[in-house]
Amino acid sequence: MKNKSVIGSKWSFLLVLLMLSGFVQGQEEPKQKSGWIDDFSGTVSVTHNGISLVPSFSLGDPAMLFDLKFRKGRFSFEPDMRFALEGKPWSFLFWMRYKAVQKERFSLRIGMHPALNFRTVSVIRNGEQEEIIESRRFLAGELAPSYALTDNINVGMYYLYSRGLDDSAKNTHFLVANMAFDHIGVTQQFSMSFSPQVYYLKQDHFEGVYAVAFVTLAKQDFPLSVSAIFNKAIDTEILPEKDFVWNVSLVYRFK
Question: Disulfide-capable partner of 195 in 27, 154, 169, 214 (CB 3.0 to 4.6 Å)?
Answer without folding.
Answer: 214
